[in-house]
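Lecture notes, unit on protein representations.

Consider one protein chain, 350 amino acids long.
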Amino acid sequence: MTNLAATHRWLIFVLAGVLLTLGMQGMSLGQGGKKIYWTEWDGRTQTGNVRRAHLDGSYVKDVVTDLKDPRSIALDTLRRKVYWTDYGTGKIQRADFTGRNIKDIVTGFKIPAVLHIACDENGCKGEAFPHNGGKIELPHEALIDPYGLALNPGDRKIYWGNNLRGTIQSADLNGSSIKDILDIGIDVPINFAIQVGGDKIYWINTERKAKGGKIQRANLDGSNLEDIVTGLRGPHGIALDMISRKLYWTADGNKIQRANLDGSQIEDIITGLGNVDKITLDPVAGKIYWVSYTPDTGIGKIQRANLDGSKIKDLITGLGYVWEITLYSQGAYTVAPSPDKLITTWAEMR
């Protein structure tokens, strides 16, 4: 029994040493579970890419390359798929997290042409006159130019804004059952956030006529449309913190603001930024991530700060134009060795 007890203590010591070593090596197990994904335009090659990196900015990797013009991006963490819109082709596409198995999910109309659209209670029809001549008749279901993208794994749906008709649409994750959710006229919904579990979708409305912008929300079926924040200048990114029940967005090209989910108690979080664009949150870790760029050079970067705006840090610099950013955080954990837990675990195993 004495030898067995000594063996147990030795094994516990070795296991604790291994875990402590892993923790000292930058928490590599936990860091590997969380990644930043983004879409990026490369001005040198005139192509777009889907890319990713660890949350500390290390291990930058191309996921999908040589795309026409990828813009919005969303992740299905349950099925390990990445979705994106391609402004150059009018498509919504997806691939595995590895970049394999690229598939067209929604195919819209994207040919250089003069386009006339007429709508009535039965839907819309279009006539396209391509620059090289001819005429193309377009039925209602072909009048799609996706801009903005959100994904709700719970109801297995994707949502996007239709740049051609000023509508919000949805479809199943495989692109079937395309449906008009809400018609907001000539204004264009450009960025979305899903309130999972609350049956709400939030978006930024560019308000072309007002030359401004506002944040709106509605139920996922398009009912109960509400203006949440109005009178914004140059809003672009939007993200939700469902832990603190806060809504974050970028505005004026140089600041990040937040408010309660109903739009009350607006406050500036970070000001004085340079051309800040899209944002995403890690509420559990208390972090906000955003992209910014230099107009003269087209060079972009990804930055991070605490949710209260403190501790701003450059994570990845020297990028092309980053269109949108999101996080993959499923399966992430922190290595926190505990001899008590090891002893308990060993006792249960024994």
